[in-house]
Amino acid sequence: MSTSNVPGEIVNDRLPRTINKRVMLIVVLSAILILLGSITLTSFTYWKKTPPYITSKTPGTTHTIRTVHTHIPTPKPTVMPTQTTVHAPPLSYPLFNGNTHIPEIALTFDDGPSPFYTPQVLAILQQYRVKATFFDVGYLVADYPNIVRQEHNNGNIVANHSWSHPVLTYLSAQAIQSQLTSTTNIIQATIGVRPTFFRPPYGAINNTVLAQARNLRYTTVLWDESAADWNLPGVNVIVSRTLYYARNGAILLLHDGGGNRAQTVAALPIIIATLKSRGFKFVTIQQLVDDLVVPLP
Ligand code: ZN
């Protein structure tokens, strides 16, 4: 190679100038074609990869699709406990009973806590491994906080039965609100949990009572039948009435406070043992409400 070439002349003295020009043209055209081709190929590859439904059609990815299908039933059992643990908002209607397709019964005890009878009721529930719901009177919660803590610690539900057990339908909206709120506060201060279930004394309800309960985010709970144990009809009568009323989803009303409850305490083990032998499961009001939405098999 010589450094004395004419400026602009191609540094290749073995080929004539015309051939050099043709070669240049071919090289340039080829370069352009290669460039265009690579751009097109890149674009095609990009679009081919982008939509997921295209890659899922390739044989290599069918296994992934099958894996996804086999995993679909898996979330169902994990979803069910979530539905039962995440509690729904309060019911907009008074609850008289639970799901009539499920053999479960909610035992409910009103008018406590009583320093004499509630511990006996709690011991029987523990002995039979049964959970129940206690509709406590606010001023008694203030008097016997340790018994209420025991109710809660044993896995029972502590619920609101007003502060002083008046006939709420005789009261103003403001007085009803006061009865409910003060009881809410004392229960929350005692067990650290805000109650979500309310039962009006004597089952006395009207639109004002129900509206106040709803405003405070309570589900109002009544009962479908009562053995009238408060009237002291005798142990055998309490047992026979309760067994007669027991059915799927029943809310049974008994009393652990408000008077002499020795008959109720004596009847309770017989009631629990008999209904268990008939295949019933005892649940809290919370469980009863959660099971309202369980679909039929
Ligand atoms: Zn009562």
Strand coverage percent: 5-15%
Distance, first to last CA? 94 Å
Largest sheet: 6 strands, parallel
What's the total helix number? 12
Helix-strand string: HHHHEHEHHEHEHEEHEHEH
Average pLDDT score:
79
Structural class: alpha/beta
In this entry the ligands are: zinc ion
Q: Judging from the principal axes of the Cα atoms, what is the shape?
A: globular
Report on this model:
This protein has helices at residues 17-49, 52-55, 62-71, 75-85, 118-127, 138-143, 145-153, 173-191, 207-215, 235-245, 262-277, 285-290; strands at residues 104-110, 133-136, 157-160, 197-198, 219-220, 225-226, 251-255, 281-282. The chain is an alpha/beta fold and 297 residues long. The strands form 2 sheets. Strands 1, 2, 3, 6, 7 and 8 form a 6-stranded parallel sheet that branches. The protein has 12 helices and 8 strands. The longest helix has 33 residues, at 17-49. It is globular. Residues 110-111, 161, 165, 201 line the site of zinc ion.
